[in-house]
Amino acid sequence: MTETAVAQDRRWIALILLCVAQFVVVLDASIVNVALPTIGRALHFSESNLPWVVNAYVLTFGGFLLLGGRVSDVLGRRRVFMGGLVLFALASLLGGLATTSGQLIAARAVQGVGAAMLSPAALSIVTTTFADGSERNKALGVWGAVAGSGGAAGVLLGGALTQGPGWQWVLWVNVPIGLIAAAIAPTLIAESRAQSRRHFDFGGALSVTAGLSVLVYALVEANNAGWGSAQTLALLAVSAALLAAFAAIERRSAAPLMPFSIFRVRTVTGANVVGLLTGASLFSMFFFISLYMQQVLGYDAIKAGLSYLPLAVSIIVAAGVASQLVTRVGFKPVLAAGMALIAAGLFWFSRISTHGSFVSDILGPSLLAAVGLGFAFVPVTIAAVAGVRDHDQGLASGMINTSQQVGGALGLAILSAISTSVIGLAHDRATLTSGFHSAFLAGAVIATLGFLASIVLIRRSDSRAHVALARAVPAAQPSG
Fold it and tell me: Are 63 and 213 in contact (CB under 8 A)?
């Protein structure tokens, strides 16, 4: 085997390692959901505090993503990736050992910080290891398949581990994976960083991290406090002020955390808008499907988890197909088709029946939405880093992750409020189904906005240029 072939094999093995790490991050956002009732009883959570087992992770993950992406550019992508893995694994260990609700919530918050470090670092390693073109498309197809199926797999594994060895294992399963991945990373992944950027913008880092964290907190608490409450309005105002301060700091900084010149690439801006709308429309789909299966159809945790298998498999297949289509027709038409399929799937879900079944009410729309997710996730990731210089890849990766996470928090808050307004105090199956109808229909509207944004904001010329590059360099060497 030639030296070039060995290097290529090494890159693809490294991709597997990076995808496993990202799979654990996505998995962890959903795996805990099924275990929540058991955790609540074991650690004596109050009803109002129990959602913070999930919210603490979402809060720090969404708040620190942009910072994590830029830190990886400055300090070294492999170094930050490994540090994030170790922090994530240790926080998972401590979470499983928690004996009080406060200890578990604190551990989940630290998990989120670790995830916010490793996720954008991993994606930027992928984009700097595989040059723009057909090879990067294939790599991001694998990335999209793994990341897209993580949410569905989390529900399945969460039920199996909770009813088997115990709820602690939904956290402890991360420990060997994280530590082993961190140990072998130096043998597979070369260090890379932005050589021209050694100064770190602490003012910008503090303001944007605080601003995003307050924004996510306001969104996850909005339904409890009320959208028009003094708390929600005050938090949104504080977030806006912090983000405005961040913008002012960046304009004056000699080495800004986020150079606003990146937004001059219209396709990058458009990809982040579509990413936000994808998160808002689709991330909450898993939440409402789970509620429908368990509260209306009467499924237990294991049966509900198994019901996600067709969806998870379809995402994997669709992401692989999408990576090939992007090389042939460009990321714009594939992304638009994906958003249209997501909208159609959510609209189909809005027709669920009180006396439904898996085959008649869940399988069809699940498959449609899964194909849409595979078709949307891969091209939106490619578009989000298209035309971005290597030394800004961590920033671009952090931006698209942030857009999707903030979109997910925003969508869940809005759709939960819509569902709750219909359900009210009644919890009979018919009323619950009506509430879920409204949530799915609102999700379909948001996905439709994502479809329109992909048509209007993603430049056709950038999409065509990507196809030309992929055809001209079918087996590109790594760019970093």
Answer: yes
Interior/surface letters 362-401, b for 16+ CB within 10 angstroms, e for the rest: beebbbbbbbbbbbbbbbbbbbbbbbbebbbbbbbbbbbb
CA 354 – CA 374 distance, rounded (Å):
29
User: Pick from 175, 176, 134, 187: which is nearest to 11 by CA?
Assistant: 187
Name the DSSP class of 359.
Answer: I
What percentage of the chain exceeds 70 in pLDDT? 93
CB 363 within 8 A of CB 345: no
In sequence order, what are the residues at sequence separation of 6 or more whose Cβ sits closer than 8 angstroms to the Cβ of residue 234? none
The 8-class DSSP code of residue 131 comes to: -
Rounded CA-CA distance 430/426 in Å is 9
Cβ contact 254:384 at 8 Å: no
Question: Do 93 and 367 touch, CB atoms closer than 8 A?
Answer: no
* Intra-chain end-to-end CA distance of the chain, in Å: 23
* Residue 380 in tokens: 């939106």
Q: Which residue has the higher pLDDT, 146 or 176?
A: 176
Q: How far is residue 130's CA from residue 400's CA, in Å, rounded to a whole number?
A: 18
Q: Count Cα neighbours of 301 within 13 Å in the Cβ-side half-sphere.
A: 22
pTM (two decimals): 0.82
Question: By the 8 A CB rule, do 480 and 192 touch?
Answer: yes
| Cβ pair 445, 418 in contact under 8 A | no
Contact 381, 335 (CB under 8 A): no
Using the predicted structure, report yes or no on whether residue 470 has a pLDDT greater than 70. Answer: no
Query: In sequence order, which ranges of 265-392 are alpha helices (DSSP H)?
Result: 266-291, 301-306, 309-329, 331-349, 364-385
Q: DSSP label at 478?
A: P
Instruction: Give the mean pLDDT of the chain.
Output: 84
What are the φ and ψ backbone dihedral angles of 448, each rounded to 5 degrees?
-65, -40
Query: Distance between CA 43 and CA 49 in Å, rounded?
Result: 11
